[in-house]
C-alpha cells in the first residue's frame, strides 16, 4: 500500500513542479526492515520510503562533505548551483530563462520563485524548508490520488520529512517519505532524516546506505537455496536481543558480513543451527577485537556487482562500528557480558 501510494502521489505532483524552479521528485524507494522482509523486535511500525530529488532546469546539486562533523554516518551539504540553459534553448527545446545570462529585468519576476530564494539557506538546500515545501505538495495533491477515496490521511508533525497515518476502517499504517539526493549514479544517498535523533543544522544531510543494503538482500535472496533463510537469522536474533544492549542494526551488519564470507550455495536450511552459531562466533571475534567494520563502506570486494558506489567511497577505510568499545573499557566489559548472556539464551 505504501509503495502504491507514494507512486500515485509522485505522478500527481511531478506534473506541478516540472519545468518550474523546484526539485523534481523521482520514484520512491522502500527502505528498512519492512521492505527487506523482516521486522526487528524494536521496529516502530513506520514504513519508510526515500524520495530522490532531482534539481530543476537551470540548477545542479553538488554534494560537499562536512568534514567538521563526522561520525560513523557521514554528513553532507547540498550546494545548489546555477547552470547555463542557453544551449538548450538554441537546440529548439522548451523556452527557459537562463539564470546566468538573461538580463536582470527578464529574471526579476521569475527569481521570486527561484530555488535559492525559497528552499535554500545561503547556497545550500535547507532540509526543513524543503521538507515543509514537500509536505505542502503532498497535502495539495492528496485529493487527486485514487487512494484518497478509500483511505483517511492524517499528517504527523515532523520537521525533516513528511510523515502521515493512513486509516481504512480498523486498518491503519504509518508512512514516512524521506527526501534524498543521490550521489551521482550510485546507490548511496544523502537524506533529510538523520539515522538517530540528534541536533543537526538545517543544511546537514546525513549519508544513508539503506538502498545498497536492500539491493544486497535482494541479491542474497536470489542466491541462497532457501530464499528466506537470511531473513530467518535476523528474525531469530532480534527475538532474543531485548535487554542485551545489542541493536538490530548491529546484528544486521554481522549477518550480512557472514553471508558474504561463505558461498551462498552452502546456506541450506538443514544447517540452520550451525550458521546461527557461526554468526554468534563472528560477533564474539568482533567484540574481542573491538572492531565491527561497516558493511558497505570499504567493503567493495564483497558487495554484489549490481551495487554501485560513488568513486570517493570505493577505497575509504571501513568505519569501525565498535569504535566506542575501543575507547571505553567499561563499555567493552558490558558488551562482553551481554554477549555471554546472548549465548546463554
Automatic annotation (TrEMBL):
Highest taxon above the source species: Eukaryota
Protein's recorded name: IPIL1 protein
**According to its record, what are the GO cellular component terms?**
membrane
Gene3D superfamilies named in the record:
1.10.1410.40
Q: Which InterPro entries match?
A: ITPRIP-like, MAB21L/cGLR
What gene does the UniProt entry assign to this protein? Itpripl1_7
